[in-house]
Backbone:
């Protein structure tokens, strides 16, 4: 699998996540971020979409919208 790095949060501490990638083979988006652990948030998620044991929820700040849009543009370009 080859991941194409799109960008990361410029405000992240110590140069870490969150970050956005595109899987070059499948076009899937891959998000790196803080794992959601708040019980209330997880309960709200589970009310709408059951979380499977192999899944997790990751929080990505709204300020990364442009980076996410860039990743979507990459995916659109693959299918053009």
Residues:
């Amino acid at each position: 699998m080859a991941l194409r790095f799109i960008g990361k949060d410029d405000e992240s501490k110590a140069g870490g996540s969150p970050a956005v990638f595109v899987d070059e083979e499948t076009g899937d988006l891959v998000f790196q971020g803080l794992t959601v652990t708040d019980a209330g948030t997880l309960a709200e998620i589970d009310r709408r979409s059951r979380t499977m044991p192999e899944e997790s929820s990751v929080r990505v700040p709204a300020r990364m919208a442009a980076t996410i849009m860039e990743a979507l543009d990459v995916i659109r370009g693959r299918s053009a």
Notes: The CA atoms of residues 48 and 73 lie 28 Å apart. The two ends are 22 Å apart (CA to CA). The mean pLDDT is 91. The helical segments are 39-48, 65-79.
